[in-house]
Structure to design on (440 residues):
């Protein structure tokens, strides 16, 4: 197995430009493909996940042109994929697999969707059940409730609201919302139970509006797609920098002094993970948690900057992380540097991500000396008096595990990361950028 040894560091300082947002990149690629007209997408994330989406769209007959670095020209198919029979492999890209499942289940073709073994362990039954309510014909090729899937032409029936659980993955609701305009019929979705990761649905609704479709929303319980609506290209679209990726560098500044500045994002971002700055530093949102770590956060038109608190002492956290499920992983590492025990709650969705992130995080935090308690939907972290040096961190083919644990080296201890190339999923240049800011 490939390994990367990171030397002990005590200081992070500098400026980095963020890669494009994965969530925005893959949503925008699919919407551009479904739209009428040509869309130029600038600052698209170059990663394994976006590569899987691009490959899938090309297989479906969508015309794509890579006309500049991280810039793609997509000729939309006006809701009608040219290729009606295809086998599509999507790796472990959930932001590609779930939306494409919904779109192709309503597209009127014969399609097979598969991925890596871990993708075949990630539940998709709630989305499939919802699609069947709409008249889709979806078959499981192995285990019920999980990929791989076989899709056949649907018999659309939207006379009744589609009911879908909201407490497993927001990607299921995103997939339905993005796909239902293909039917040209009025459609209503009713969310059963609490909707998790609401900011990711905000991203979806925002992008759909940019492509010409305004969803009528009644709180977080009911969503209505108007009849006879269709996606239209906005022309040129710029992808924001990735807020989840920003969390590692902002955490580095808070842990080791800083300042560390990330360029490509601001407080006006449509991404929910920008609210990571609330628990990390002094709250700047009216909905921010009351518990925060007291780092110093500064903002500009297209940047965010972090520094350690005056005196260098970070406070422990006790917060509900429903609104920042991905960035919350970074807080678990920052908790190693806090003065007391931190608790991250409402993170059940971690268990159905690239790996079981609660179990993985608990196991690896213990390797560096932390006392960890894990529950079904929470993790409690008590930092050690001194970090354990030379820990070898398993990453579980999970990009966020690798990026998170690199921050441990800023505590003045060397650390080894197994399978560092797993960061290619969202941030291929991560370790190069981290090395540039970890200066001493």
């Amino acid at each position: 197995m490939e390994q990367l040894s990171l030397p002990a560091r005590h200081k992070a300082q500098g400026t980095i430009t963020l890669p494009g947002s994965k969530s925005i990149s893959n949503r925008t690629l699919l919407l551009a493909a479904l739209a009428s007209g040509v869309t130029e997408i600038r600052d698209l994330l170059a990663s394994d996940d976006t590569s899987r989406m691009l490959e899938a769209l090309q297989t479906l007959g969508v015309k794509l042109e890579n006309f500049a670095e991280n810039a793609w020209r997509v000729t939309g198919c006006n809701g009608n994929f040219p290729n009606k029979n295809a086998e599509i492999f999507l790796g472990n890209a959930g932001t590609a697999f779930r939306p494409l499942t919904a779109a192709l289940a309503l597209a009127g073709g014969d399609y097979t969707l598969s991925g890596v073994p871990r993708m075949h362990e990630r539940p998709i039954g709630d989305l499939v059940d919802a699609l069947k309510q709409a008249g889709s014909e979806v078959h499981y090729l192995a285990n019920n409730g999980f990929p791989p899937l076989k899709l056949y032409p649907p018999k659309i029936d939207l006379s009744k609201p589609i009911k879908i659980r909201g407490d497993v993955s927001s990607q299921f609701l995103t997939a339905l919302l993005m796909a239902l305009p293909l039917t040209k019929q009025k459609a209503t979705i009713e969310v059963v139970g609490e909707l998790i990761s609401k900011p990711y649905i905000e991203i979806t609704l925002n992008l759909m509006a940019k492509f010409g479709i305004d969803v009528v929303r009644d709180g977080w319980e009911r969503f209505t797609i108007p009849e006879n609506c269709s996606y239209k290209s906005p022309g040129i679209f710029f992808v924001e920098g990735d807020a989840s990726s920003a969390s590692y560098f902002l955490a580095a500044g808070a842990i080791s002094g800083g300042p560390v500045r990330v360029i490509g994002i601001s407080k006006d971002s449509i991404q929910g993970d920008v609210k990571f700055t609330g628990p990390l530093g002094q709250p700047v949102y009216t909905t921010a948690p009351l518990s925060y770590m007291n780092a110093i956060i500064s903002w500009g038109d297209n940047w965010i900057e972090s520094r350690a608190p005056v005196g260098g002492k970070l406070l422990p956290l006790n917060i509900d992380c429903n609104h920042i499920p991905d960035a919350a992983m970074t807080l678990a590492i920052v908790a190693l540097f806090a003065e007391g025990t931190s608790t991250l709650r409402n993170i059940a969705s971690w268990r159905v991500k690239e790996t079981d992130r609660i179990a993985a995080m608990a196991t690896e935090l213990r390797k560096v000396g932390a006392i960890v308690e894990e529950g079904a939907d929470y993790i409690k972290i008590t930092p050690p008096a001194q970090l354990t040096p030379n820990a070898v961190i398993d990453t579980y083919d999970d990009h966020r595990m690798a990026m998170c644990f690199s921050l441990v080296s800023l505590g003045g201890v060397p650390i080894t990361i197994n399978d560092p190339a797993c960061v290619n999923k969202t941030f291929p240049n991560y370790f190069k950028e981290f090395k540039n800011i970890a200066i001493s």
The two ends are 28 Å apart (CA to CA). Residues 283-290 have pLDDT under 50 and may be disordered.
